Amino acid sequence: MSVKVLITKSYDELSKKAAEIVASTIRNKPNLVLGLATGGTPMGCYRELIRMHREEGLDFSEVVTFNLDEYIGLSPDHPQSYRYFMDENLFRHVNIRMENTHVPDGMSKDPRKTCEEYEDAIRKVGRIDLQLLGIGSNGHIAFNEPSSPFDSRTRVVSLSERTIKDNARFFKSIDEVPRQALSMGMGTTTEARKIILLASGAGKAEAVAKSVEGKITTDVPASVLQKHPDCTFILDEEAASKLSGKVTKF
Ligand code: PGA
């Protein structure tokens, strides 16, 4: 098995392609269970989904969402919390029901219980139908940093130094970046029926090449996706620039 690779000309095209896949999957299954990612990469896809909702009537009224992760210690009204990100960049612009949106609670007094409840909530709706992913420059997916076990479930994780540096651009200073997060596990994430991973820019090229063409190893978490039956990487040319060219493109 291998991942499929779609190389687009630009970030804009990548975003539109991803949004088209999400939209057509929602049209086929209005009560889709959709796994969502935060970060700079999916923002264009969310903008396009909002446009499709406004101009083409894309209907989110029955869609159920689960986000990958949340920083520990940031409340939902903190501008860098992932709950805030999702509300601002997607949810409040479409007709999704807020009670159908799930983001782990980073303020929980009992994080372990919160993680178990998150897994239970996913189990209750069956399975994630379509999971959107980004990739870290170190190959992480969600906040599953290198050496995360492939069978891990939603849990408390520590951010790697590299991730803290990468994410510092969203905060006033690096000291403000939370050191811990609640993250869906590798096992949770890879159980999705279909996975789309988005990567843009030269900074992701090495992680992408290792994940698509390298050895399957916990050192590069996204390499586990090679074992998934239906996973597509949607890349721009920069993010694809270190692939050898032998990959299955479409
Ligand atoms: P980014 O983050 O989209 O902000 O680059 C991706 C990730 O860390 O998974």
Structural class: alpha/beta
Mean pLDDT: 96
Indicate the CATH architecture.
3-Layer(aba) Sandwich
What is the CATH topology assignment?
Answer: Rossmann fold
Shape: globular
Number of strands: 10
Instruction: Using the CA coordinates, give the radius of gyration.
Output: 17 Å
Bound compounds, each kind once, are: 2-phosphoglycolic acid
Q: Looking across the biggest beta sheet, what order are the strands in?
A: 1-10-9-6-2-3-5
Given the structure, what is the number of helices?
A: 7
Report the major sheet: 7 strands, parallel
How many domains in all? Answer: 1
> Uncertain segments of ≥5 residues (pLDDT<50)?
none
Q: What is the string of helix and strand elements?
A: EHEHEEHEHEEHEHEHE
- Indicate the percent of residues in helices: 25-40%
Could you tell me how far the N terminus lies from the C terminus, measured between alpha carbons in angstroms? 15 Å
The CATH C-level name is: Alpha Beta
